[in-house]
Design goal:
It contains ten helices and 13 strands. The longest helix is centred in the C-terminal third of the chain and has 17 residues, at 267-283. It has helices spanning 8-21, 26-33, 37-50, 71-83, 89-96, 101-110, 183-197, 222-229, 246-260, 267-283; strands at 142-147, 151-152, 158-166, 172-178, 202-205, 233-236, 320-323, 329-332, 335-338, 347-354, 357-362, 365-371, 376-379. Strand 5, helix 8 (222-229) and strand 6 form a beta-alpha-beta unit. With 388 residues, it is of the alpha+beta class.
Amino acid sequence: MPWRELKIMDEREEFVLRSLSEDTSFVSLCKEYGISRKTGYKWRDRFLEDGKYGLGDKSRRPKSSPSELTEDVVIKILQIRHHHPSWGAKKIACILKEASVSSVYRVLAKANLLKKKRSHKVKDLHKGNLNQLIEPNKPNDVWTIDYKGWWLSEDIKRCNPLTVRDLKTRYSLDVILTPRQDTPSVKVALKQVFTEYGLPKVIRSDNGAPFASYSSPLGLSRLSVIWMSLGILPDRITPGKPYQNGAHERMHRDLKEEVQNRTRGSVNYYQRLLDEWRYDYNFTRPHEALDMLTPATLYRPSPRKFEGYPDEIEYPQGLETRRVSKNGFIKWGNQPIRISSAFQGYQVGLACIDRDTLEVWFSNFRIGMIDLVSLSFYTIANERGYTV
């Protein structure tokens, strides 16, 4: 007779007592109770070791599991997440070394610290002219730049965090609070960055001020013209598609969670926090896109040195030059031709293509053509925006 479900403990106790007190063979007794000899010996041995309590069913779960975390490790995981709320399981496991990614993920899930991914619908606006999305091959090929919105400090002053980053290595070149989100403020901030790290080949931005201007040919703003005077090519994402600069936007989310949303203080206090955050971002935080290396292990300054913002642009012999007026005009044979006020004060280079056409250059960039019949300027509508 197999064990009866409702009296299983009594049946086992009865079996064990009979096996110890009767002369009936053990094999026959096991057969009577409908169990194997192995099971019979198991219950007899448990009874002799633990008494009646040894006859209960024991969990098949192993006493210890290779993936089971100690309380200390769980606390360390939660402490790291507390100090770095934007870090996921991979980064925490990379730093901690005492738990696998899956184990860290389970801890975060139980603590309800996993974020749900949101889907975003974007409106496709009209295309810009410099949406090249150039891919970097090495450090300083492409820098990305943007403002992380703004917020008010404890002393009711506006905090405008300007962020600059190397696209290839993810290295944060600067996070600096500027007095305003305008061309003079960015120009001063970038002077410090250029002096320390040299010049990039390309700077990518969105299409907002002061980085771009919808009213100007090629969307060039005064700031992007200043970059061009240094031989830097402006590059912009497609309007309405911030995901094209997704890595930079992700950095902004981390900055918001770890600095903006966690404390209150003066502008100077926030700048100290941002400096500390930037050091941690570059030297401590592992990045998945870098195979869990830190940006500081890969970034090197640019060999192109910054020697100040030029007041004049030098052009090769054979190009005629004209200075752009405050209103954005040049003169050709006493006839005014509008270029763009973004170039005001600078000289542009002019090359005669034929009797009716001029080619217009700024620094080492060909920016457009002039039709001498209609006295009109138009940009070069090729697939690369303009020719370097």
